[in-house]
């Protein structure tokens, strides 16, 4: 059942991009791209948590670090495609938009949505990451050794 | 994954699971009484009553054992989506679901420890018929005597002697169910 | 003994109303928004998330506002809210090797791949009050440095590991116990201890860690590495059959490298203590690593020297500030009946003592 070749699972990749989008952004891009289709809820948006695990010594046995709030939902389009969303935080509107995009990415709208929703989100996320990394890089210490006395 | 597999949960989870929980609590508190429980339309071979009980009591912390014909993809996918419950064998489950024959032997299930008697399994037994007749019951929650159509007698008599350890049972049939907790004496 | 007594409803309601008014303070001063607390008191927010065991900056900020800045009260609010959430599952263990580091320093190696990145730290500030902050002021943009591509930053312990000079942390997939689901029981394995420590009171953990430095179970800790940054959280979605990233959380990780002379079972080598805490919570993460190391005496074959930080039962049963404050503060609530019986007892003992004295005097 478990997908062993995650790197080539495009759905995993786009769901992750949708989950990391900032508040309201997925809905904004989706609505700018296409008109929202009709859908039915399989699971109305609900707020819960996930236990975040980590490993002792970074690589050893797992332990429970603490929970994180999660909003999830599942819906089905009239054409039968099922969309899921699991996103950090408590935002039912964002979860709905993410699940809609997930469902639509399985339809003939995929190309439009990749170009107008997924790719822009990915670019924004990369830019935000780079901006932060550049600030961190500016605080990197350049050591220089003082000249030692040597005759 | 097909949408049909993902439907059939509670339409209004907060309200319906609260109603269902109340029914399960009533049934456990008054052993032998038969209650209606609705709201779930699980895939075959699960009965609507068993489906509603599973939706109400199971979550990611409660390993479930699917016995016999219940162990099929349709049931697995439905439970995974609606409850997130992991699947386990009889020795590690907190809930088990199946027919009486499929669930046997009872010795395979956890009966709790003296420190934590609650760390025991609850068996959901699917029955074709369920009626308030047959084996006589007495004990806490029963005024005088009650009667319930049990699949057998000896196993429940043996279970009651383990108290405070032991197993608890729910009998489901269609959209009705009854309970037999470990406190009930089976005559 | 507890006896239900009615009364005081009006007093309680009025006390709540006054509390709300006092929380707001002088209405001539602008009200704080939750977003302001989240953005501008972020280290308080981080502490509430870490000890509340729930990563949600907005909720933590709201709790701080509601608690008038009393962080333990805010943690209490978060813990209470957390119990109402259905749990959807557990994440895959986060990979801190994939962290996007804001800060990454090592006290043991000057030159290490990835370098020493200071990040937004108080370390080199002069601890002089900055009166410029008392007036409104624009903050200049922090400088940036381009040309450095973000890459995975390897852990310092990996270098030592290559030489075999430090104990390993071998991969293991035992499902961890969860003290928020089942009561804490002794003996507690390391997974349980780490969970208890990461949500433990910062002050208590700091005090214990400090005691190990001062000689109570001294274990000669160096900060092998301290890193702060965002890590992706992945969880397996049962209905999909694969794991997806649900977002990122910021964590602080501290790995200590501790001197170890060797024991009957282990060769002389460096040993490790581990701290990992939600948010930018550096003091807590370092403290956690020191206490983790002290608690590992048994598995490393060291002697129990009777130090508080070595005593798992003492540490784990007293580290939780919500348990502690609950039990401590309850003694201020009505105990009228208990006290009446105590009063009766003392009076009786007094009478007996007095008549005894009289008898003695008569004899």
Automatic annotation (TrEMBL), chain A:
<keyword id="KW-0808">Transferase</keyword>
<dbReference type="GO" id="GO:0061693">
    <property type="term" value="F:alpha-D-ribose 1-methylphosphonate 5-triphosphate synthase activity"/>
</dbReference>
<protein>
    <submittedName>
        <fullName>Alpha-D-ribose 1-methylphosphonate 5-triphosphate synthase subunit PhnG</fullName>
        <ecNumber>2.7.8.37</ecNumber>
    </submittedName>
</protein>
<dbReference type="Pfam" id="PF06754">
    <property type="entry name" value="PhnG"/>
</dbReference>
<dbReference type="GO" id="GO:0019634">
    <property type="term" value="P:organic phosphonate metabolic process"/>
</dbReference>
<dbReference type="GO" id="GO:0015716">
    <property type="term" value="P:organic phosphonate transport"/>
</dbReference>
<dbReference type="InterPro" id="IPR009609">
    <property type="entry name" value="Phosphonate_metab_PhnG"/>
</dbReference>
TrEMBL record, chain B:
<keyword id="KW-0808">Transferase</keyword>
<protein>
    <submittedName>
        <fullName>Alpha-D-ribose 1-methylphosphonate 5-triphosphate synthase subunit PhnH</fullName>
        <ecNumber>2.7.8.37</ecNumber>
    </submittedName>
</protein>
<dbReference type="Pfam" id="PF05845">
    <property type="entry name" value="PhnH"/>
</dbReference>
<dbReference type="InterPro" id="IPR038058">
    <property type="entry name" value="PhnH-like_sp"/>
</dbReference>
<dbReference type="GO" id="GO:0019634">
    <property type="term" value="P:organic phosphonate metabolic process"/>
</dbReference>
<dbReference type="InterPro" id="IPR008772">
    <property type="entry name" value="Phosphonate_metab_PhnH"/>
</dbReference>
<dbReference type="GO" id="GO:0061693">
    <property type="term" value="F:alpha-D-ribose 1-methylphosphonate 5-triphosphate synthase activity"/>
</dbReference>
TrEMBL record, chain C:
<dbReference type="GO" id="GO:0061693">
    <property type="term" value="F:alpha-D-ribose 1-methylphosphonate 5-triphosphate synthase activity"/>
</dbReference>
<dbReference type="InterPro" id="IPR008773">
    <property type="entry name" value="PhnI"/>
</dbReference>
<dbReference type="GO" id="GO:0019634">
    <property type="term" value="P:organic phosphonate metabolic process"/>
</dbReference>
<protein>
    <submittedName>
        <fullName>Alpha-D-ribose 1-methylphosphonate 5-triphosphate synthase subunit PhnI</fullName>
        <ecNumber>2.7.8.37</ecNumber>
    </submittedName>
</protein>
<dbReference type="Pfam" id="PF05861">
    <property type="entry name" value="PhnI"/>
</dbReference>
<keyword id="KW-0808">Transferase</keyword>
């Amino acid at each position: 059942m478990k997908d062993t070749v995650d790197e080539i699972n495009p759905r995993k990749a786009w769901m992750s991009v949708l989950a990391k989008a900032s508040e309201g952004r997925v809905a904004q891009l989706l609505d700018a791209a296409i008109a929202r289709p009709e859908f039915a809820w399989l699971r109305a948006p609900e707020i819960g948590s996930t236990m975040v695990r980590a490993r002792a010594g970074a690589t050893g046995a797992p332990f429970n670090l603490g929970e994180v709030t999660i909003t999830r939902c599942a819906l089905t389009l009239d054409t039968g495609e099922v969309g899921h969303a699991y996103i950090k935080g408590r935002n039912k509107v964002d979860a709905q938009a993410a699940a809609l995009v997930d469902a639509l990415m399985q339809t003939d709208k995929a190309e439009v949505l990749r170009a107008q929703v997924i790719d822009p989100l990915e670019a924004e996320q990369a830019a935000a990451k780079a901006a932060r990394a550049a600030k961190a890089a500016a605080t990197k210490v350049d050591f220089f050794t003082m000249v030692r006395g040597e005759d | 994954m097909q949408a049909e597999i993902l439907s059939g949960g509670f339409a209004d989870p907060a309200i319906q699971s609260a109603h269902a929980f109340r029914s399960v609590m009533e049934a456990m508190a008054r052993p032998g009484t038969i209650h209606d429980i609705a709201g779930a339309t699980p895939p075959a071979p699960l009965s609507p009553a068993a489906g509603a009980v599973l939706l109400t009591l199971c979550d990611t912390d409660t390993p479930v054992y699917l016995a016999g014909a219940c162990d099929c993809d349709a049931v697995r996918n439905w439970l995974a989506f609606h409850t997130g419950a992991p699947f386990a064998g009889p020795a590690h489950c907190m809930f088990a679901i199946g027919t009486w024959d499929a669930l046997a032997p009872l010795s395979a299930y956890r009966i709790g420890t003296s420190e934590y008697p609650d760390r025991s399994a609850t068996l959901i037994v699917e029955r074709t018929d369920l009626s308030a007749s047959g084996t006589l019951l007495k004990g806490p929650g029963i005024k005088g005597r009650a009667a319930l159509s049990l699949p057998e007698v000896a196993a429940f008599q043996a279970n009651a002697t383990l108290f405070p350890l032991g197993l608890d049972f729910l009998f489901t049939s269609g959209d009705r169910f009854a309970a037999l907790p470990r406190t009930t004496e089976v005559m | 003994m507890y006896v239900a007594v009615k009364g005081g409803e009006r007093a309680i309601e009025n006390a709540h109303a006054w509390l709300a008014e006092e929380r707001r303070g002088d209405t001539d001063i602008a009200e704080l928004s939750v977003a302001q607390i989240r953005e501008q008191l972020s280290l308080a927010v981080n502490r509430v998330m870490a000890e509340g065991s729930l990563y949600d900056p907005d909720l933590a900020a709201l709790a701080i506002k509601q608690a008038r800045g009393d962080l333990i009260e805010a943690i209490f609010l978060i813990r209470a809210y957390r119990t109402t959430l259905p749990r959807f599952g557990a994440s895959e263990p986060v990979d801190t090797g994939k962290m996007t580091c804001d800060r990454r320093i090592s006290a043991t190696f000057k030159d290490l791949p990835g370098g020493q990145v200071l990040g937004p730290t108080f370390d080199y500030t002069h601890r002089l009050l900055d009166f410029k902050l008392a007036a409104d002021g624009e903050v200049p943009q922090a400088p940036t440095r381009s040309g450095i591509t973000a890459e995975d930053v390897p852990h310092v312990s990996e270098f030592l590991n290559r030489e075999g000079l430090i104990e390993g942390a071998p991969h293991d997939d035992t499902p961890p116990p969860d003290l928020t689901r089942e009561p804490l029981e002794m003996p507690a394995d390391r997974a349980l201890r780490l969970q208890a420590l990461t949500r433990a009171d910062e002050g208590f953990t700091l005090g214990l860690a400090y005691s190990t430095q001062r000689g109570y179970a001294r274990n000669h800790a160096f900060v092998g590495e301290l890193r702060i940054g965002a890590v992706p959280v992945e969880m397996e979605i049962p209905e999909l059959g694969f794991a997806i990233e649900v977002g990122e959380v910021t964590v602080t990780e501290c790995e200590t490298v501790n001197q170890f002379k060797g024991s009957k079972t282990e060769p002389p080598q460096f040993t490790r203590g581990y701290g990992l805490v939600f948010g930018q919570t550096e003091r807590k993460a370092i403290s956690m690593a020191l206490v983790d190391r002290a608690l590992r005496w048994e598995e490393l074959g060291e002697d129990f020297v009777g130090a508080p930080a070595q005593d798992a039962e003492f540490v784990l049963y007293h580290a939780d500030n919500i348990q502690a404050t609950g039990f401590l503060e309850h003694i201020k609530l009505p105990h009228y009946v208990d006290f009446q019986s105590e009063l009766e007892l003392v009076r009786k003992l007094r009478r007996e003592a007095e008549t005894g004295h009289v008898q003695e005097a008569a004899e």
